[in-house]
């Protein structure tokens, strides 16, 4: 999995770090980014995933 193959993002301009997840809408592309900071990368990432599971997944 790479940023370019998965999200079409140039890895010169974007860094894969836990705590920020792009939001894509079908037929529209990336429309937002959800960001959580303050804990370790994996913990930040998991907060977002758990919040999305509550409402959308």
Q: How would you explain this protein's 3D organization?
A:
It is a single chain. With 57 residues, this protein is of the alpha+beta class. The protein has one domain. Helices cover 35% and strands 23% of the residues. The chain is built from two helices and two strands; from the N terminus they run H-E-E-H. A two-stranded antiparallel ribbon has the order 1-2. The mean pLDDT is 88.
Summarize this structure briefly.
This protein is of the alpha+beta class and 57 residues long.
Helix-strand blueprint:
Layout: H1 3-7, E1 20-25, E2 29-35, H2 41-55
Antiparallel strand pairs: 1-2
Integer-rounded radius of gyration: 12 Å
Unreliable segments (pLDDT under 50, ≥5 consecutive)? none
Share of helical residues: 25-40%
Biggest β-sheet description: 2 strands, antiparallel
What's the overall geometry? Answer: globular
Instruction: Count the beta strands.
Output: 2
Order of helices and strands: HEEH
Mean pLDDT over the residues = 88
Q: Please report the number of helical segments.
A: 2
Spatial strand order of the main sheet: 1-2
- Distance between the first and last residues' Cα: 21 Å
């Amino acid at each position: 999995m790479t940023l370019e193959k998965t999200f079409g993002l140039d890895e010169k301009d974007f860094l894969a770090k836990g705590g920020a997840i792009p939001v894509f809408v079908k037929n529209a592309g990336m429309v937002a980014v959800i960001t959580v900071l303050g804990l370790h990368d994996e913990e930040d990432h998991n907060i977002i995933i758990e919040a999305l599971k509550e409402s959308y997944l």
